[in-house]
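ok trying this again, last paste got cut off
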Amino acid sequence: MQGLHDFIPTDVKISYIQELLGTGFDTLDFGSFVSHKTIPQMKDTAQVLDKLDLTGTSTRLLAIVANRRGAEEASAFEKISYLGFPFSISETFQQRNTNSTIDESLSRVEEIQNICINTGKEMVVYISMAFGNPYGDTWGPEIGLTWSHRLSNELGVKIISLADTTGVSNPENISLMFGELLPELSGVEVGAHLHSIPGQVSGKLAAAFDAGCRRFDGALRGFGGCPMASDTLTGNMPTEVIKGWFEGHKIPTGLNEEKFQSVLLKSSTVFPPSI
């Protein structure tokens, strides 16, 4: 929702997210505690959270934060299990996304991790631009590995998601990154947050899964993208395509099929058809 110009009414968000909570996902990235000026779509996250009923669901809620203030605000809510932070290994994008250098962002991660420890939350760090970047910044698997080691070994982060952000990933660099990181990060859950055009989804999923990844992020119908990345959003991996790929390979998802189809249909009324 964050990249949409037109504000989605709060009651629509509540109804949609509540239905998602009944579908059986492990984790639901439901909102953000970030600057209302920068991302006005997320200004009602606290109001949405207040109305969500978590009774009977095992799905855990994740909120995105960009600094200490956002982490303190999010951590005050018992319903939230995870705080997610976008940590870019592209210096250009880190400045665009959080108005900080990579080194400054590492300090923010430390602050947020301490807040998580003190409030019983768990931190999820997204390594954005993990598969390359369009800005000409130096990229290579060794850069992602170095920062991931620091996040894990120095700060105790146990969930790290490799994020594509601008859709530059391909099966080769996906295999390369997961092949390098997974053996090195013992005890860390390493996930895939991939963006893609439709024709490239299956190849990217296969590359990540074959390399050992078992945590995948998606968005229904592929809506979304990072509004700080470029003027043209590269959509998220469509959840229904991820689900179909798993099922086609006899990999159980644990999702409730009837509820999944219902919320998939509902998504077309929440998001504009032009997206």
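PB: full thing came through this time. The chain is about 40% helix and 15% strand.
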